[in-house]
Known about the structure:
Keywords: Methyltransferase, S-adenosyl-L-methionine, Transferase. This is site-specific DNA-methyltransferase (adenine-specific). By secondary structure, this protein is α/β, with parallel strands linked by helices. It contains 13 helices and 19 strands. Helix 2 packs across helix 3 (55-67) and helix 3 (55-67) runs parallel beside helix 5 (94-105). The radius of gyration is 26 Å and the shape is globular. The N and C termini lie far apart (53 Å).
Amino acid sequence: xxxxxxxxxxxLANLSNDEVFTPPVVVNRMLDLLPAELWSNPDARFLDxxxxxxxxxxxxxxxxxxxxxxxxxxxxxxxxxxxxxxxFGLAITELTALLxxxxxxxxxxANGPYSVCSAFHDADGNIRFRSTGHTWxxxxxxxxxxxxxxxxxxxxxxxxxxxxxxxxNPETIFPDMKFDVIIGNPPYQLSDGGxxxxxxxxxxxxxxxxxxxxxxxxxxxxxxxxxxxxxGLDDFRREMLNxxxxxxxxxxxxxxxxxxxxxxxxxxxxxxxxxDNPGLCDxxxxxxxxxxxxxxxxxxFDTFIRHDQAASIVRKVCAFGEPMMSNMVxxxxxxxxxxxxxxxxxxxxxxRWQNGEGPYRRDEITVGRELIDKWKVITSYVGYDHAGNPxxxxxxxxxxxxxxxxxxxxxxxxxxxxGSFDTEQEAKNLVAYMKTLFFRFxxxxxxxxxxxxxxxYRLVPIQDFSQxxxxxxxxxxxxxxxxxxxxxxxTIRTIK
Length: 496
């Protein structure tokens, strides 16, 4: 009979979809990216600025306890040295501070009778939580963008004002202290007070703040959505793609391969930023339980292409210098109508909404009026694939619906207008193009969330829509090799 004695932090890692706890096995993969000599260096300092369970500091402590055994033979002296001089953490809540201390010091009080460190004189040790407030400016926090309407709360409620990013000068948090390694798993997003479950990304602020401290090494695990930018991430994407200090990028296309039981649209990644050694990046892609390496620059395209094979295909397509479909596709709300708008009692045009069609008044349309009397190809703003991830067969469909609106028909923001034409045949030819594996493969390279925005079409070339297009014609035009065709067909699902 086998005994099953799981690490409690492995169990905790599966509890949250919001502020995701990190499994120990993932922590150790991240630690493996760091130079081995750190574990025998008694002067190396480590900071987790977003401690939740303390798992990062705990696993670092294990490595230091072994690596420093010859330098500091006495076990208690070694532990006291590591915990007081080398490991530091900022908890994100008072509760996670207690949990982190329990994980790292084996006691929620660092100076308690059961603490493995005998040198602390206060309960916090080097893992602290300081209640921090938002700084409101024009209805939002100037540091994290939180909505005052949502987060200006009673002091008894959690404010989500994280200490590490609520200052212009993070070096004042631990004065006169330099860190060799900053590591962690920051909170991913914060409700922004928008419609429904709208939320703004938060994780990039922790990366940028950590870089201000100029550690020797920085490694964090964050959503991969920054690859495509959007919603406050465009500047961050440019910074990351043009930063040749990012030497390793490990990308999980399906987040559940990294965080079992957790869905994160677009997947997750972790990276190693090396202050003193710029160069090419070792890109590690994990897909369908297969790992692929490629050494390349990150900024070859203005969006990050996950797969080296896909990058080869995109190079061929872009070499033609053709205008791209992002120049044709409408922005969100192509006719200025929100999702909740419904047909009117009477009108001289038709409105397509989520559940059907009905009359609407032409004179009330102020946006997209030039499209009303065209043949329009539309697709749903929300993609087909769950959380933007491949299905069980490892393939993606991408579009949930493609349709044609005749002249005199408009739509709500449930749909984007992909193209508009004077003739029905041109519209039909665009539909045929959109259904090709080629078209949907290129859109998928820029799609890292539930939504398919105008920018997701930035790698798809505009064709001559006086003729119909098939995959065979497109493969021949762009000189695809057999292995490239196979990669496309292994990635995208056929639709009729």
